[in-house]
Amino acid sequence: METYLIFKDLAIVIFAAEVFGLLARKLKAPQVVGQIIAGLLIGPSVLGLVNLNDNNSAIAYLAEIGVMLIMFSAGLETNLKDLLNTGLLSLIIACVGVFVPLIGGFLLFSFFYYGGIPAAGSKEFFEAVFMGTIMTATSVGISVQVLKELGKLKSKVGQIILSSAIIDDVIGIVVLTFVMSLSGEGGGESKGIGRVCLDVVLFFVFTIVLGIIIYNVFKLLNKKYSHHRRLPILGLAFGMIMAYCAEALFGIADITGAYAAGIILCNIKDSDYVAEKMDINSYMIFGPIFFVSIGLKTQFDGMTSDILIFSLLFVVVALATKVIGCGTIAKLAKFNFRDSLKIGVGMMTRGEVALIVASKGLAIGLVDQKYFAAVILLIICSSIATPIILKLLFKGDKDDSGSGGEKTEQIAENSAPAPAQS
Amino acid sequence: METYLIFKDLAIVIFAAEVFGLLARKLKAPQVVGQIIAGLLIGPSVLGLVNLNDNNSAIAYLAEIGVMLIMFSAGLETNLKDLLNTGLLSLIIACVGVFVPLIGGFLLFSFFYYGGIPAAGSKEFFEAVFMGTIMTATSVGISVQVLKELGKLKSKVGQIILSSAIIDDVIGIVVLTFVMSLSGEGGGESKGIGRVCLDVVLFFVFTIVLGIIIYNVFKLLNKKYSHHRRLPILGLAFGMIMAYCAEALFGIADITGAYAAGIILCNIKDSDYVAEKMDINSYMIFGPIFFVSIGLKTQFDGMTSDILIFSLLFVVVALATKVIGCGTIAKLAKFNFRDSLKIGVGMMTRGEVALIVASKGLAIGLVDQKYFAAVILLIICSSIATPIILKLLFKGDKDDSGSGGEKTEQIAENSAPAPAQS
């Protein structure tokens, strides 16, 4: 019956997120950076005002709903035609964006701890492979939010970053399962690479079949209830079902399911209206809590100089490999240098997926607890660096995002009055 | 890391709430009734699709935030002048609305189980007193939502119901503590009647002092950021802080704190704009979850015919005593019969407070687990009966709720398109 205790933490989180988000904007940085730093400050690593312990699962739940809402409305604001046009390129970028960091992490760990590549198949070998695997998955949530703030989500570059990051998640999961089944440590976790690929295929089939049905249902609903609250409410329920099914039925990240749900609805007449209602829920409570919680998760105790050096190298390699890998492909695909760099940087961010991979590694004894500091440092650095660099790169470009982008830019623009309808 | 599991339950809850809310409206009943019934159906007592076990605290948290949001925006939509005008009358109605049920419950239990009044001071005596205490507190959340749906929240009758229910909560807490300290069973729980009265006074002083400061801060913010998302966000943070402080510092229900926060901000220029943003959060996710969760909490196992009969009498007495007690005072205050009945019926609803009182009684050994069925039955019946009767009573009245009421009526009106700005 002590549920009232959550209000203290929630109030602190929401207030800090708002204040530091504003501060970040005044310093011309995206507000998500401010919100993550707010989490660092109020979290255990500095002030310790809010702690993510078991009594505090409320924040974890709200953060999970937050990232789900962000991905869902990202899907809603997707231009399906563009996504399909950029599909092949995104696929290639995603693959390279997985394998270059995988190799980079493998080499870093091997040479840092063993001065060379351990015998293939040995425990050391798989430890090194796993360290690389942690580096693979881009966290799309942060990039999406930044692209929204910049009003570039619907731009070609934005679409490529978004779809690559999504595909990248899927490939990351395949790689993880591959490594785990090879290392024979998977136990209950492991389900075999064949099964994983099958699941991925089945998920796409499931999404397409269900998508066609649901899309037509919503088209009818939209006719009957134009600009009516029923659409966002039922849309939200559908997004949540997809998030659940993706993970429960196919072992694919729930955020990927939410994004797919958004894409399914992105062509209904009121998709902007639905997305806008999601945004209001998102910016009022759920979104800030998600970004603050990244900072809250951070703890810097138990840091030895040895781990510290490794962590810093880990971060550098993880960021560099994504930028070089993805950027190179973009350049080969005839993007100019600046846009290629945007795509590379947009793929830099790591998030909860990296933590999930690391904890799976911990569970099967291939990753030591002490390396979590490195993973968290990577999440923090990439979450802070990516938005700033992306904003600098986009600055001065003329807007190529279309009206939708404009709208989201306005809605996200904190120091300008929100438009009447938001 | 299994947070994705919440999405299944949330999707079911949101979908069921929407469908049955719509169904209720088609049957000319308020949609909250549909939502509570939806909870009954999907909950353990019927289909068992969603269970409120420990793994599912997400729904409990969201429901708590939901009732907090409802109370906060109820405060925002309060007409402070009317509240002060109705203050004394509300106080009297609240007092009578506490003591008549208290005596009713005491007599029912005494005669049902002991065929007469037990010796004062005996355990049986305090068991009977406690059964009455459970009946005292009106649950304002449901009445508020219904009055909003009917667009009568700002009407004189609506204001009296609302403020009486609020005062009634406070008196209920005083009575509870009084009984517990008298019965000498309180233990850590009990803090003495003097202390309780002091806390209530201190809470009002705290609210007034803080209120004057915060009100002026928000007046300045409102000047700087008219119709800007910053106002609802900071308002929400303030509402949550007040909810926390009320319960943590003064032992007063968190919803009372949230309502006080709303009243503090009800006179800023953009109070309607802030309330509207709260409503969007509330109707999309939190509100439905709160009302569905009332149904979810219900379990009818372990029902003996003995308990069943007592439960039914318990419900009848609890409802009748409120209607008669509060209605009579209203009639004496020169309200016509119909309006007096509205006030009496509006005070009938019981909710989480009754459950809290019962569980405190369980904790100190004055209430047996088996009587929880009676309490839950009371919550269900009153939650379903009150909205229907209120709607019937208000039907045919000409609207006396002012534009604010009109707006909320529109917003709540599910089968009419939501206004552009919602």
Structure commentary:
Chain A is built from 17 helices and no strands. With 422 residues, the first copy, chain A, is mainly alpha-helical. The first copy, chain A, is globular, with a radius of gyration of 21 Å. At the A-B interface, helix 1, helix 3, helix 10 and helix 12 of A face helix 1, helix 3, helix 10 and helix 12 of B.
Task: Give a short synopsis of this structure.
2 copies of one chain form a homodimer. By secondary structure, the first copy, chain A, is mainly α. The first copy, chain A, has helices at 5-26, 31-42, 57-76, 80-85, 87-114, 123-134, 140-149, 156-182, 193-224, 230-250, 254-265, 271-296, 305-332, 337-346, 352-363, 372-394, 402-412.
Q: Would you spell out the secondary-structure blueprint of this structure?
A:
2 copies of one chain form a homodimer.
Chain A: H1 5-26, H2 31-42, H3 57-76, H4 80-85, H5 87-114, H6 123-134, H7 140-149, H8 156-182, H9 193-224, H10 230-250, H11 254-265, H12 271-296, H13 305-332, H14 337-346, H15 352-363, H16 372-394, H17 402-412
Helix pairs in contact in A: 1-2, 1-12, 2-12, 2-16, 3-7, 3-11, 3-12, 5-6, 5-8, 5-13, 6-8, 6-15, 7-8, 7-16, 8-9, 8-14, 9-10, 9-11, 10-11, 10-12, 13-14, 13-16, 14-16, 15-16
